[in-house]
Design goal:
This protein is 83% helix and 0% strand. It contains nine helices and no strands. Helix 1 runs parallel beside helix 5 and helix 2 packs parallel to helix 4.
Length: 191
């Protein structure tokens, strides 16, 4: 039963996850943490961190890890968990595969028409909204702590957030370097 739910959930995320992997993060979190309860918020945050550090698209990596974790928790079997990760990954990719096969010829033919350009122009703000939603969903007490419960961790987390933003946006430091810097700072300052 978990495999069917996993397939359906990630198929729907793949079907409606406009904006790529980062746009899918809010959908994945809502489904896996809030709706199904397969993961805690902390587990999901760890999955996102690992997904960013491993090669490949973040949406697919997240689906793989979420599928593994959800099935492993439900069954206690690592072998079944591997099947869960395969199921979630395949389900996430399947809608894109089907849609790209179906529309590739039509898109090439009608790509420069006003209707298609209007559709893409209308989708851009929605994609930005999904990316912002993913960011805001991860800005919670589990990731930043709070000024009342642990002020040291809160202000260090805020400082790392600001430093990472400034480093990537204005100083043009490569994101991989920023991830490494943040991991090193986390080791030194937070624990």
């Amino acid at each position: 039963m978990i495999f069917l739910e996993l397939f359906y959930t990630f198929f729907m995320i793949g079907l409606f996850g406009f904006g790529g992997g980062y746009g899918m993060l809010s959908l994945i979190q809502t489904e896996t943490v809030v709706h199904h309860g397969w993961l805690t918020t902390a587990e999901f945050t760890n999955i996102v961190a690992v997904s960013q550090m491993t090669p490949g698209p973040i949406g697919i990596n997240s689906a793989t890890y979420c599928g593994y974790t959800a099935v492993e928790k439900a069954t206690g079997s690592q072998l079944m968990a591997i099947l869960g990760s395969t199921t979630a990954t395949f389900a996430l990719v399947l809608p894109s595969l089907i849609l790209m096969i179906l529309i590739s010829k039509m898109f090439m033919r009608y790509m420069n028409t006003q209707a298609v350009q209007s559709i893409f122009q209308a989708l851009r703000p929605a994609v930005v909204g999904l990316l912002l939603a993913a960011t805001l969903l991860l800005m919670n007490e589990e990731n930043f702590s709070s000024p009342t419960s642990n002020p040291w961790q809160f202000w260090i987390s805020v400082g790392l957030f600001v430093a990472t933003f400034v480093g990537t946006k204005f100083m043009k430091i490569h994101p991989i370097r920023m991830i490494c810097f943040a991991a090193f700072a986390g080791l030194l300052l937070l624990y």
